[in-house]
Specification:
The chain is mainly alpha-helical. It has 2 helices and no strands. Helix 1 runs antiparallel to helix 2. The relative contact order is 0.13.
């Protein structure tokens, strides 16, 4: 007998599950990257706050060259923060794309599982009908044999 449709669909389900796992791995890696970018931004903010705090606590007179260097450094810190925020935004966008891809892959797997369940139920129903028909024929043949034997 030929292989049932439900069993043949198992191959499709296996492929869909692999795709879902791959999408999940990409999502997980991107989430880790996002966490790292957030941590880097936090460290940059902490460093800037510490630097500003140390510089503001200085009691001695500030020379013009120090003030220029300080101003330039603060400007570079601001630029680095803007760069980090842009990087963080890109990773968040990428994370959302990976999340959507994973959702789609998950829905596809669920749909295939539902189809396999439906096909299995249909096939079982057909087998039950076939079995019932055969039993009815056997009972009918047994009845005819008894009638002919009498």
């Amino acid at each position: 007998m030929a292989e049932s449709r439900a069993k043949r669909m198992q191959v499709v389900l296996t492929l869909a599950e692999r795709a879902e796992q791959q999408a999940g791995q990409q999502l997980s890696q991107c989430q880790a990257q996002l966490n790292a970018e957030v941590e880097q931004l936090r460290q940059l903010d902490d460093y800037a706050a510490q630097y500003l705090n140390i510089y503001s606590e200085r009691k001695t007179a500030v020379r013009p060259q120090e003030l220029i260097a300080y101003s330039g450094f603060i400007q570079r810190l601001g630029d680095a923060r803007k760069e980090q925020e842009a990087r963080l935004k890109r990773v968040e966008t990428q994370l959302e794309r990976f999340r959507q891809a994973w959702r789609i892959a998950r829905q596809k797997c669920d749909s295939i599982k539902e189809l396999i369940e439906k096909l299995t139920q249909e096939e079982n129903g057909l087998l039950e009908k076939r079995l019932q028909k055969e039993l009815d024929e056997l009972v009918g043949q047994a009845y005819i044999r008894r009638e002919n034997a009498e």
